Amino acid sequence: MELEGLKMSRSKSQKITVEQFISSMIPLIDMEKEAEISASLGLSSTRSLHASQKRGSSIFNLKCTDAQTGLMGKTLLEFQSNKGDVLPAHKFSTHDVVVLKPNKADQGSSSLGQGVVYRLKDSSITVAFDEIPEDGLNSPLRLEKVANEVTYRRMKDALIQLSKHKGPAVEMIPVLFGEKLPTTTKKIMQFSPFNKTLDHSQRDAISKALSSGNVFLLHGPPGTGKTTTIVEIILQEIKRGSKILACAASNIAVDNIVERLFPYRVRLVRLGHPARLLPQVLESALDAQVLRGDNNSLANDIRKEMKVLNEKMLKSKDRNTRRDIRKELRTLSKEERRRQQLAVIDVLKNADVILTTLTGAASHQLEKITFDLVIIDEAAQALEVACWVALLKGSRCMLAGDHLQLPPTIQSAEAEKMGLGRTLFERLANLYGEEVMSMLAVQYRMHELIMNWSSGEFYGGKIQAHSSVAEHKLWDLENVKRSSSTEPTLILVDTAGFEMEEKKDEEDSTMNEGEATIAIGHALRLVESGVQACDIGIITPYSAQVTYLKVLRGTEAKLKDVEISTVDGFQGREKEAIIISMVRSNVKKEVGFLTDHRRMNVAITRSRRQCCLVCDTETVSEDSFLKHLVEYFQEHGEYLSASEYGH
Ligand SMILES: Nc1ncnc2c1ncn2[C@@H]1O[C@H](COP(=O)(O)OP(=O)(O)OP(=O)(O)O)[C@@H](O)[C@H]1O
C-alpha cells in the first residue's frame, strides 16, 4: 500500500472498541488453533498413522543413539533411523514441540515424554526433555509433532485480562483503541547516543520515542537499521531508570536483540526454553542466572540436607523418629521451594531488561512484575492478540516494524479473511499516522537502483541509500570477476513466448520448470564468475517451486550453498545476489497472490548488489503494479530473453 493509499485508508479506517476487538478475536483464535492442529498433525485428510508419516508429522522407527545432560538440567536425546543413514522425509523443525512414543503405539496412546526439538541434521534429530524417559528407550521409537496449544491459551487469557481494564496498561489501553489521544512531552528530547554512528533519521526517531507518553511506532523499511535503533532506545530508557520488557514474535528476533545488547553490558535476562535459544545467548537465560545465584546455592544445600534425612528415615525403625524426620523434611521442602522462588525473583528484579517472545511474556515467572516500557520488534509480523500478552504488563509501548512488508502468516484462510492477521502496528499507523510514528530513511543494504523502485512504490520516495552501499556491485566483492553476469544491478529474464507454462504440483501449489532452470542457470553463471554460492539466494512465492528448485540444485555440486526459499520465509534476510522466480505464466494471465504487492516489496529488497527477476512479462503485466515493476527493470536494468539461458 503506497503512502497515498495509507492516508486514504486512515480516513476510512473504522475505529474498533476494546469490546468489539475481544469478541471478534476469540472465535478467530479457535479457528487458527484448529487449523494449526490439523496442519501440523497432518490430520486434514485422514487420521491414520500412515498418513501422518506421509505428511511428515511423525518420524517412525528411530533408535536413541545418545543421551546427554546439560542445557540447564534438560536431557538431550539424539535419535537416528533404524533404517539407514538419513532420516525419512519429515516436516520437523527446531523448536517444535514433540512427543516420544514406542514405534508401534496407537496414535492416541500416552507418550514416554514430551520435549522440544533442539538440533536437526540429515541423519539425526536431537530433542531436549525436562526429564529422561524412564524406560522404553531401548526399543524402536517414533516422534510425533504436537500443536503448541499453550500459545492459543495465553492469547485468550490476554483478551480476558484486557476486558477487565486493570493493571499497569490501564492508561494505555484507551489510547491504543483511539478513545483517548496519545500524549507526548512537548520539548524535544536531547540525548547523548551510546552508538556514535546513528544517522539523522535514527536520531530523530529515538528522540521522538523518548518523548512519547504512551505509544510510539518505529517504521523501519528494509535495511534501515531498525534493530540498531531499538537497541539505542533500550539503552537510553535504561539510563532514565526504566524497566523494560522487550519482545518479538520469534525467538530468533529476540535473540538478535540480546546479542546486540551484549557489548553494552546491560543487566538483562532472556526468558524462554533453553532449547529454543541461540547457544550464544544461553548465558543470559533465566535458568542459567538462577543457577548462579546465592539463593540457589542455599536451595542446593537444603536439597543435600534433605537427601541425608531421607536416607536416615529409610534406615530408622522407630516410628516416632520417622515422624519427626518427616516433619523436618516438610519444613525443609517448603524452604527449598521458597529459596528457588527467591532465586528467580532476585534475577528478574535486578534486570533492567527482560527479553522474551510475545507469548513468553505470559510466563508465570513474570506474573507479579510490571514494566515502564514494553518494546515489540517485528510488530508488523505479529498477531495483535499476541502483542496484548506483552502489552498488558507495561504502561508505555513502542512497536517497531514495517506494515508495507508481509503480515504474519495465518493458517486458517477464514480467520485471515475475518481479520486475525491485521496487525496492531498497521491499525495504529492508520489511526494516528505520523503523530506517533517515525520512519527510518537511510538504508544500509541495497544498491540505489534496487532501492529506488521500492522507495518510490511504497515509501513516498523518501529512502536514501547510505554511501557505503549506494553504488556497490557484485564485482566489488573479493575474487568476483567483472563479467556480463556480475555487471548489471538489475536483470530481467523474460520467458514470454517461450512456452514455459506454469503447472500445479500434487498439493495444488504452482511451479514453473522453465523458470527454475533459468534461475539455476543464472546462479551457475554467478558462481563461475567467482560469487560464493552462499551469497546467492533464489526466492519464489510458491512452495512447489522451492521444492523443484532444490531438486535442480541437487544436481549441481557448486550450488550446494545457494539458499532457496519462499519469499515469505526470507523476510528479514538478505543476500548479495537474489534471483526471483515469479512462476505465473498462463494464457488467462492470472497472477494469484502476486497481487499482494507487499510480497514483491519483500522479494526485491532482499538483494544487496544484484536482483535478477525471472518472469513471463506477458502474464504478470496484467497486474498494473507488476507491469510497472517490469518497466522499471526494463528501463534501469539488463533485459534478457530466456533464449540467453539456452532455451
Ligand atoms: N547508523 C548506521 N551506520 C552504519 N551502519 C548501520 C547503521 N544503522 C544500521 N546499520 C547497519 O545496517 C544493517 C541493518 O541494521 P539492523 O540489523 O539494525 O537492522 P534490522 O532491523 O535488523 O534490519 P532491517 O532494517 O532490514 O529491518 C546492519 O548491518 C547495521 O550494522
Automatic annotation (TrEMBL):
<dbReference type="InterPro" id="IPR004483">
    <property type="entry name" value="SMUBP-2/Hcs1-like"/>
</dbReference>
<dbReference type="InterPro" id="IPR050534">
    <property type="entry name" value="Coronavir_polyprotein_1ab"/>
</dbReference>
<dbReference type="InterPro" id="IPR041679">
    <property type="entry name" value="DNA2/NAM7-like_C"/>
</dbReference>
<dbReference type="GO" id="GO:0005634">
    <property type="term" value="C:nucleus"/>
</dbReference>
<protein>
    <recommendedName>
        <fullName>DNA helicase</fullName>
        <ecNumber>3.6.4.12</ecNumber>
    </recommendedName>
</protein>
<dbReference type="InterPro" id="IPR014001">
    <property type="entry name" value="Helicase_ATP-bd"/>
</dbReference>
<dbReference type="GO" id="GO:0005737">
    <property type="term" value="C:cytoplasm"/>
</dbReference>
<dbReference type="GO" id="GO:0005694">
    <property type="term" value="C:chromosome"/>
</dbReference>
<dbReference type="Pfam" id="PF13086">
    <property type="entry name" value="AAA_11"/>
</dbReference>
<dbReference type="InterPro" id="IPR041677">
    <property type="entry name" value="DNA2/NAM7_AAA_11"/>
</dbReference>
<dbReference type="GO" id="GO:0005524">
    <property type="term" value="F:ATP binding"/>
</dbReference>
<feature type="domain" description="AAA+ ATPase">
    <location>
        <begin position="212"/>
        <end position="434"/>
    </location>
</feature>
<keyword id="KW-0378">Hydrolase</keyword>
<keyword id="KW-0347">Helicase</keyword>
<dbReference type="GO" id="GO:0003677">
    <property type="term" value="F:DNA binding"/>
</dbReference>
<feature type="domain" description="Helicase ATP-binding">
    <location>
        <begin position="194"/>
        <end position="436"/>
    </location>
</feature>
<keyword id="KW-0547">Nucleotide-binding</keyword>
<comment type="similarity">
    <text>Belongs to the DNA2/NAM7 helicase family.</text>
</comment>
<dbReference type="InterPro" id="IPR048761">
    <property type="entry name" value="SMUBP-2_HCS1_1B"/>
</dbReference>
<dbReference type="GO" id="GO:0043139">
    <property type="term" value="F:5'-3' DNA helicase activity"/>
</dbReference>
<keyword id="KW-0963">Cytoplasm</keyword>
<dbReference type="InterPro" id="IPR027417">
    <property type="entry name" value="P-loop_NTPase"/>
</dbReference>
<dbReference type="Pfam" id="PF13087">
    <property type="entry name" value="AAA_12"/>
</dbReference>
<dbReference type="GO" id="GO:0003723">
    <property type="term" value="F:RNA binding"/>
</dbReference>
<keyword id="KW-0067">ATP-binding</keyword>
<dbReference type="InterPro" id="IPR047187">
    <property type="entry name" value="SF1_C_Upf1"/>
</dbReference>
<dbReference type="InterPro" id="IPR003593">
    <property type="entry name" value="AAA+_ATPase"/>
</dbReference>
<dbReference type="Pfam" id="PF21138">
    <property type="entry name" value="SMUBP-2_HCS1_1B"/>
</dbReference>
<dbReference type="GO" id="GO:0016787">
    <property type="term" value="F:hydrolase activity"/>
</dbReference>
<keyword id="KW-0539">Nucleus</keyword>
